[in-house]
Amino acid sequence: MARKSRKVIISCAITGAIHTPTMSNALPFTPEDIATQSIEAAEAGAAILHLHARNPKDGSVSIQPDDFAKFLPVVKQATNAVVNISTGGSLTNTIDERIAPTNQFSPEMCSLNMGSMNFSFHPLAKRYDEWKYDWEKDYVEQSEGYIFRNTFRDIRHVSESLSPHNIKFEHECYDVGHLYNLKHCVDIGLFKAPIFIQFVLGILGGIGADTDNLVFMKRTADKLFGDDYKWSILGAGGAQMGLAATAVQLGGNVRVGLEDSLLISRGQLAESNAQQVAKIRHLVEELGYEVATPDEAREILNLKGGDKVGF
Ligand code: KMH
Ligand code: ZN
User: Fold this and answer.
1) Looking at the 3D structure of the chain, how many domains does it have?
2) 19, 69, 215, 217: which has the fewest C-beta neighbours closer than 10 Å?
3) CATH number of the domain that residue 152 is part of
4) Which residues lie at CB < 5 A from ion ligand 2?
5) Which stretches of the chain score pLDDT less than 50?
6) CA-closest residue to ligand 1 atom 9
7) Ligand 2 centre from 16 Cα, in Å?
8) Residues near 192 by Cβ (< 8 Å), separated by ≥ 6?
9) Ligand 1 close to Cβ of residue 111 (< 6 A)
10) pLDDT value of position 1
11) Which positions ≥6 away from 224 have C-beta within 8 Å?
């Protein structure tokens, strides 16, 4: 009898807070486009949609719950995908502002960044002579001086404030030290197994995007968490697809999406989030694995269920 193949969870991060409208016409920022691209990504095979909001007028990053309210119900009506709301915010927000949309909408999942760090994309500013909107150049350049604050107290505050909602965290770990931060938090009882770790490779300020580092992150997580964790990989920029394919073979899950990379292949812009999902789905299946449905992802990650969200 044929052995059952492992199910791989595909997350898709639809728009994020790094890229700006000048960088790609495909980057969605109106609520209609965020909803449409989310639905298409789910149809292409994404079980989890990692969502940020944008200002519909100029594409700048928004953490206003009102801007999330414009697309969350549309996505929920049209798909069974798991909604994961970002708590990353943008360059200037407090931790309470960053968790406000999650607190209001009580999704099944939300991100939780596991350490303070430089988090910069200022080198991107040099690539463009003209910008579609006034805010973009300054925003990208200002990231050179940005400290992404996620102290232990912030992390505890997020965990305690959101605990009534029974939300599963996507623990974003940008370096090996973040895994040790997470271990400390698990040891003091902040998070329940299975924890879900997103290895984030290739952000300027974090660990670089290569296979050695992925193996090092995984080996460290194995040592710290044993069987009590599930993991996924997010490779920034051109590293996205290659690292994802490697991660699948190492037993991991994958995240793609225009938040993390605007490319579909070397030097070529992606047309949409769904195009990236379709590509990784093809690679996953060619490697002999199956893609998890949203309900299978719910079971693997022990999520509360799509009927228990607040939108
Ligand atoms: N933009 C990614 C590198 C968050 O939303 O909390 C990390 C991220 C952070 O997804
Ligand atoms: Zn994000």
Assistant:
1) 1
2) 215
3) 3.20.20.70
4) 16, 86, 88
5) none
6) 88
7) 5
8) none
9) yes
10) 56
11) 179, 180, 182, 183
- The single-letter code of the amino acid at 277 is V
Instruction: Tell me the residue type at 85.
Output: I
pLDDT attached to residue 90: 81
CA distance 26 to 158: 32
Token pair listed for 219: 């080996």
Instruction: Look at residue 195 and tell me if it is in a domain.
Output: yes
Q: In testing the pocket of ligand 1, which one of 234, 256, 258, 273 has its CB within 8 Å of the most ligand atoms?
A: 234
Q: SS3 string of 64-84?
A: CHHHHHCCHHHHHHHCCCEEE
Amino acid (one-letter) located at 163: S
Asked whether residue 1 is domain-assigned, the answer is no
Is 2 among the domain residues?
no
* Residue 60 CB neighbour total at 10 angstroms: 18
Q: What is the span of the domain harbouring residue 197?
A: 7-308
Q: Given this model, what pLDDT does residue 2 score?
A: 60
Ligand 2 centre to CA of 111 (Å) is: 7
